[in-house]
Amino acid sequence: MKPLLRCVIAALLGYTHSAWALEPDIFGTAENIARRAVHDDRLGELSCSFGRLPERLTLEEAIERILCNDPQTRISWANAKAQAAQVGVSQSAYLPRLDGRLGSSQGDSQVDYDEASLHSGEGGRRSNSASIELSWVLVDFGRRGAALRNARQLLLAANATQDATLQNTFVQAAQAYYDGLSAQRSLAASVQIAELAARNLEAADAKYHAGAAALSDRLQAQTAFSQANLRQIRDRGELHRALGIIALRMGLSPEAPLQLAGDLTPLPNTQFVKAVDELLMQAQQDHPAVIAAKARLNAAQAAVDERRSARLPSLALTADLSYERSQQSRVFNGNSAERDRSIALQLSIPLFDGFGRTYEVRNAKARAEAGQAELAETQQQVALDLWANYQALKIESLELQRTGELVDQSRQSLDVVQGRYHAGVGSMIELLNALTAYAGAEDEDIQTLSNWQTSRLRLMASLGHLGFWALQ
Description:
The protein is of the alpha+beta class. Helix content is 61%, strand content 13%.
């Protein structure tokens, strides 16, 4: 009876405007809304109130700001709150309904009696009435319980959907940051290559003026230098574009001055990677999409029970207290007052409704069947995504080792060829080929590092277990 007591107190206080404006959560449904979405205690502490941008933006802070500003996360949060309120609606069905009515009427009438002994004439009537009615369903053979189970399961699904949305936003935020780091490192590499091309042009120009090299060497070196400058312009523009995307997703102007901290760190924590069969089993238990699909299936099964219970009788307690006072002329026998008090048990038995409830049950059963198919589809999609991300991470881990070696080897080759050319025993074509190979190796290594970082996070997201710990 404690919720009933709280409800009565709130109803008594609710006649004031300020109390109604508070919209109190009598049943405490807001406590069942997921406070954090990804599996990290740190996200439970996000206040979404940030100060000025730091001088160098870290990955963690960028993700926090994007999570707080992302529209999809706010939509999923609002949907969870709406479903929590629906749980309160279902819980309220267990409490009595109390309604009050006030009425007032006034009119003029004329009465003519056929018998002479009766006094005919005209006069006015004025009536004021007040009543209060109580209705409380006592027994409904499980209909309210099924409706409440349905609402609670849908709230569980909404919380899981919120979790999935935030994990997806987490990955997208990290992807945007890694794209910025890739662009930052690509620009640094293009600056270095432009410097190397400038030194090659200087050497070729000196040899040409000394008569030790042909004009073609100088022209080829000039072309390579121009290409290096063009690459530098493109990389600078790509960095500006990547930083603008991060700023926009954080709710800032795309021209906001951003500097990213850190670099693409190779080989961070991969202890979560296990045998693929074990990962598949873990995903079927922890992935929020699977949890949401299971909850929707349970809700659909509860809806079947609710529709079936609607065909059964229900027993309700009803009570009525009313008062009516009439002020009228003597021709209407003068003033009068009536008081009425009643209490009763009301049994409602559904007899025939045109087969409507029968088809409601059929509809609910069909939706439950669709829920089973949806769960199977979700489980299959989670398994497919997990397998794809697992293989991608495995392949990119092998590639990452090779691209690192390729960068070292191409740089050593470039140093040797530069030394040969400066010593007068190498050709310009050999030097330009070595410079091109080094630039390509840098590009390959940067792209592989970025893909590896993103694949690692996507694999954790496909397991349904993603948090700031994954960034370490």
